[in-house]
Specification:
By secondary structure, this protein is α/β, with parallel strands linked by helices. It has 7 helices and 8 strands.
Length: 194
Amino acid sequence: MDITENAALVVVDVQKGFDEAGFWGPRNNPGADENIASLIDVWQATGRPVVFVRHDSVKPESPLRAGHEGNDFKTYVEERRGKGAGAELFITKTVNSAFYGTPDLGAWLKAEGVEQFVLAGIQTNMCVETTARMGGNLGYDVVVAYDATYTFDLEGPFGWRRTADEVGQATAVSLHGGGFARVVTTAEVVDAAR
């Protein structure tokens, strides 16, 4: 696979609030945080642009609400911000897509001449998936580092319940099979980006 010299890494919602297991329930991809950190490190070492996205939930009970400690980036992300040789952007949002955040992700990518971006973060089937779908619709070459994302068990209509693994795999199949993004492993991305 090819990772362009100016491909952006978009790190979605890697926030402390997602560690509140009592709120979210069981998760998948236990190595995701380590993989996210390795992607940030490679991007910063190679001078590629990095986008850090934070979800400011408007729901008063959410661990991601503004003013709550859970709104903060996880420590390993916060420690890496501002450390790269490339451009960096910080976006806040209240909805699933990073393209509907502030400042405008699409305008920034265009100004930086970025046509490809790699997605990592939380949750696989929510904000990562929505950002990937929009990016694909907007004509970007979108790559999702699947094992650098994670999600949680989820209940839907008709009493249907799916495990985090099932939900994550469904997202990967929809994105990859539907042509919105290429879903790959962190190792594949790291090898191509070095």
